[in-house]
Amino acid sequence: MKEYTLPSGTYAHSVSLDKNQTPWFLGNKNGTVGYLDLTTEKFKVYKMPDKNARDPHTGVFDSAGIFWFTLQHSNMVGKLDPKSGDIKLATLPTKGSRPYGIKLDSKGTPWVSCNGSNCLIKVDKNTMALSEIKLPGAKAHTRRLAITPDDMVFYVNSGMGKLGRYNPKNGKITQWDNPSGKNSHPYAIEYADNAIWFNESAKRPETLVRFDLKAQTMQSWQVPSKDGVYSGLIRHMRMGNNGLIIHQTATNQIAEVTWASK
User: Are strands 153-157 and 142-147 parallel, antiparallel or unpaired?
Assistant: First the structure.
């Protein structure tokens, strides 16, 4: 393992890889986005063009190499063109929506979850016009998203302890109760193995849940603890080469979750 010290004051919230496996970071405390050139081992940093854009949060690259990202407390969505360094920003229609997770559908359209309001946001990739989809329940708020190959938008309803699905084709919203109930606070989410995976971050020990898309049933497992410290909280999960990769804040660990193929 080799460690690189980020520019002072960065406090990166997330890291994303571009198509060349270059690591990009989002400077949550100093309003920057940047990357580490693995050949020269030097950083390239882009500052936000608006002083109100203070906290880049989570990002994702589209097929054209454009970097889309959220700015939670700034209530904005941004996009960066690495070729020109040009950054464009758009403010969410509802104050305090707190855009958090971001994913792309099969057409490259960005979708954003709202951690401060009961909404999802669809971003026009050409104009950056924002369309707001209201979710049922005033207490609904969503941490992160997962989009299936048929472009169904799944979300964790952290405020109400539910897994949700938005169907962009007909506008229908469906929600399922989490195994541990309304106070389970689901957080991270990913699509894998014809299922939606998410965690219940308020449980001790924390639980990992699999939602079978065909049967629409859930299974849950306790995540192993280390040295008496409960393994929470899982803030993000991604598919690796063999299974889910999760990072655990409380135990300072990265873990791999694998399963037997059917």
Answer: antiparallel
CATH topology of domain 1-98: Neuraminidase (2.120.10)
Domains 1-98 and 135-262 share a fold: no
Kindly report the pTM of this predicted structure. 0.95
Chain CA centroid to CA 91, Å: 19
Q: Give CA separation, 38 vs 13, 44, 170, 251, in Å.
A: 20, 11, 45, 28
Give the tens place of pLDDT for each residue, 111-150. 999 999 999 999 999 999 999 999 999 999 999 999 999 9
Q: How far is Cα of residue 130 from the mean position of the Cα atoms in its chain?
A: 18
> What are the boundaries of each domain within the chain?
1-98, 135-262
